């Protein structure tokens, strides 16, 4: 049962069939009501015509005898109990009429005495029981002859309700049959339309099967404009996954290559029984640790880029880093200025990655600064731009680009591994930003980093 509810085909068919049945039922009800009203109006109009014919042929002589110059031409008036009747009478007592003339179709019966608000020139339409108790539709008219002793005549024309009920019943049956056929046709059309409309999804499933079986590395083919964005997004995800896999392979190879040298140095020293082995082991372990930290930082940033909803306020992070830098460079008395960093700015990424990048930049600035390091930040067009500058000697454009290369340092005499600024640029690239070094206003170098803003 749950599988049916999950079927897009059945959901579309259920909605389409429900709407089709509702529309057909509503249309049938409206058409049936209109036809019924039309038949009733036609019957009343026909009774009015017969009543006018009866009035036109009415004659009253000087002795008060009532006659008709011509009988109504409808042959049903001559057939006993045909369902169409006429009668001429005069008021007797109260609401009773004294019958004078009647149609042959009444045979030995007569139309009922019906009280009504009869007025000259105004017909009255009503329902009453007729011969054999069958319901009748009647029209009555009060006539005042201009000659003769008779003051008032009551003319009545009646028709059996079966005269309009039977056509309506036949029409209802025919209408139900026609609408039933129409509903079946519309249901069949809906089935075909849903099948035709969902055919691109079947083709998409075939392409996914080819992708799963390794016969293709992306979804190919022509798809409707409603499905094409899904296919493009899926191909984009596949491309990113392929890039991530290739990047992971490259990082694994780089890490293996980076660890090979320290391991070889330690192995050679151990085989040669070098007395400086403890010192070599410590140095090579530290070099291996730096390489591992570098690649772990890249891997963590690559994973964080795909996580939504990350938000790291930068001012508290910078304040924490400055406190660390104050202890690291305590003997030099440097001043770190954060007045140019608004408190509402936030980085759309992991706080640890932000600390990794700015920690390296602040540490590097502290090594070269004479008295001051200034940090400013601003947000523009969804990007966070952070500037860190010092009042040190600065760097030439050639050396400014060189220091971003992994393992390269601006001055070999200063301590360090040469990985810091390389990590900064790599992490910024992973987040879709960039990092560069330019001349600062304080006379030294200025590192500019752009990152996504939250």
Automatic annotation (TrEMBL):
InterPro entries documented for this protein: HAMP_dom (IPR003660), HATPase_C_sf (IPR036890), HATPase_dom (IPR003594), His_kinase_dom (IPR005467), Sig_transdc_His_kin-like_C (IPR004358), TCS_sensor_his_kinase (IPR050428)
GO molecular function: ATP binding
Transmembrane annotation, as ranges: 174-198
Residue ranges of domain Histidine kinase in the record: 254-454
Enzyme Commission no: 2.7.13.3
A Pfam family it matches: HATPase_c
Compartments reported by the entry: Membrane
Keywords for the protein's UniProt record, in alphabetical order: ATP-binding, Kinase, Membrane, Nucleotide-binding, Phosphoprotein, Transferase, Transmembrane, Transmembrane helix, Two-component regulatory system
Primary location class: membrane
Highest taxon of the lineage: Bacteria
Annotated catalysed reactions: ATP + protein L-histidine = ADP + protein N-phospho-L-histidine
Domain HAMP: 195-246
Protein name per Swiss-Prot or TrEMBL: histidine kinase
The species this protein was found in: Castellaniella denitrificans
